[in-house]
Automatic annotation (TrEMBL):
InterPro entries: Glyas_Bleomycin-R_OHBP_Dase (IPR029068), PhnB-like (IPR028973). It holds the Pfam family 3-dmu-9_3-mt. Gene3D superfamilies: 2,3-Dihydroxybiphenyl 1,2-Dioxygenase, domain 1. Residues 5-135 form the PhnB-like domain. This is PhnB protein.
Length: 141
């Protein structure tokens, strides 16, 4: 089983600009990019027009390492300097659950571990030290 820790940079509407900057500055290759407007529609949570061009998720490769990016959704708080999270990626849902349960102790769950359209088990936590983690389970859901 493979577990990877991936730096995840959360931007405030300028993720596309940051991706382009790192692509040029670090010879990065864009592996994936999707805007909020390109994601599946959910009538309960319509995407406002001003969010449609923001990056929902992107992955770039720098050498042998990946960096992930997203923009905040309009209205979400964002402060420069705290926009880096660590994405823990595994193919094992049980391992994801273990990581999630362990990291949430004395921390704050910001999104419960749950099935999403992009993962069979995804969630996010701020641990007791103030470090932001995303737990991402690869695979079909």
């Amino acid at each position: 089983m493979t577990v990877r820790l991936i730096p995840y940079l959360v931007m405030d509407g300028n993720a596309s600009e940051a991706i382009q900057f790192y692509r040029e500055a670090l010879d990065a290759e864009v592996l994936y990019s999707q805007t909020f407007g390109e994601g599946p529609e959910d009538p309960q949570y319509p995407v406002p027009e001003e969010a449609k061009n923001r990056i929902m998720h992107a992955t770039v490769k720098v050498g042998e390492t990946e960096l992930m990016f997203s923009d905040t959704f309009p209205g979400q708080p964002h402060q420069k300097g705290n926009q880096v999270t660590i994405c823990i990626s595994t193919k094992d849902p049980e391992k994801s659950q273990k990581f999630f349960n362990s990291l949430q102790q004395d921390g704050q769950v910001t999104m419960p571990l749950q099935e999403t359209f992009f993962s069979p088990a995804y969630g996010s936590i701020i641990d007791k030290f103030g470090v932001n983690f995303q737990i991402y389970t690869e695979g079909e859901h």
